[in-house]
Design goal:
Blueprint: H1 5-23, H2 29-55, H3 61-84, H4 90-115, H5 124-142, H6 152-179
Helix pairs in contact: 1-2, 1-3, 2-3, 2-5, 3-4, 3-5, 4-6, 5-6
Length: 203
Amino acid sequence: MWTNLPNLLTLSRIAVIPLLVATFYFHGPWASYAACVLFTAAAITDWLDGHVARRQNQQSELGRCLDPIADKLLVAAALFMLVAFQRVDDATVIAACVILCREILVSGLREYLAGLRVGVPVSRLAKWKTGIQMTAIGFLLVGEAGPNFLPVVAIGTVGLWCAAALTLVTGYDYLHAGLRHLQPEAGTDGKPPGRSPAPGSAR
């Protein structure tokens, strides 16, 4: 199970994180481009592992568990390092915070609903959010090392804010869908189930 191709692709996304972090401690344009290449390659495996798993019928519980974990670790590490090395402005730190808080919210909600055997499918808007988010982070990783004719930092900043806005929308969608399963089911009399009163107790 660990050695099938989809799971290896997912594990590679986790394995690349230390290399991505290490690039921030080197100076020169090559380090920024190396960070972008590593991040982009890892982001591509996010699509590729699911595609291969479906095509080769190699879907597994391990893959379903590892895939969202790998995604969130990769994004969190990249955003954390960009903020720590002041590669984003102070206002854009808010966008990064919104994105990370949403990821934690959705992860917690999915874990709870999984215990109820309730699946929360990924919406089309959430996929757009992920694509914009990954592209924006890639631009920000290149940063000032980008070509002079292209406003690389500005593109990355606008993209991250767009992703943060979509994050709020999709986060609300997931929360609204999950809350339906958190409401107590009504009893036969239309009232929520509760503890029966003890004999002779006052009402």
